Amino acid sequence: MTIWLLVPFAYFLGSLSSAVIVSKISGLPDPREQGSKNPGATNVLRLGGKKAAAITLAGDALKGLLPVLVAKYLGVQPEIMAAVGLAAFLGHLYPIFFRFKGGKGVATALGVLSGFSGWVGLAVLATWVFTAWVSRYSSLAALVAASLAPVYVWLLLGQNSASPLIGASIAMTLILISRHRANIERLIKGEESKIGRKG
Description:
mainly alpha; 0% strand
C-alpha cells in the first residue's frame, strides 16, 4: 500500500510550481509568458531578481527532497524510493495544477538526488556551481551536473544496493537533456543567455 500513497503524494507535491506561485505572490510577470517562458528559478531571476529566484529554487528543490525523505523515513525499498523520486520530478515537468506545462526540472532533480544521498546532492550541486561559475551558462551547468549525477550515485551509493536509484538518476538525466534541446542549440550557436543577463 505504501507505494500507492507515496507516489501520488510525490507527484502532487511536484506539481506545485514554485516559479508561478512565487511570481504571483511577488507581483512579477508570469514566468510561463515572459523571458524564456520557462517556469524555473533562472527565468524568475531574469524577471524578478535574486530573492524571488532563491525562493523558487528552494521550493523546487524541497518538493523533490521531501517525498524521498518521507519514503526513506518509512524504510521503503530502493525501488519504491526511486519511483517516489521520479514521481516528484515528473510532477514538476507535467504539473496537474498548471495544465501539465512545467519547468525543466533541474532543481527538483537536485532535491530528489539529495534525498537519495546528501553526498550525491552535494556533488551535483558543486558540479553545477563550478560549471556555472566558469561558463556563466545556467543551462550548460545543468547539463554537466545532470550527466554526472548517475556516476555520483554509482560511486557514492554502490552499484548493487542502489541500482534502482541509479536507474532513476539515469532517467532524470535523459529527460533533463531532452528538455534542454533548445538550450543546447543556442549554446552551439553562441546565442544562449548568460546568468544575470536580463531578457
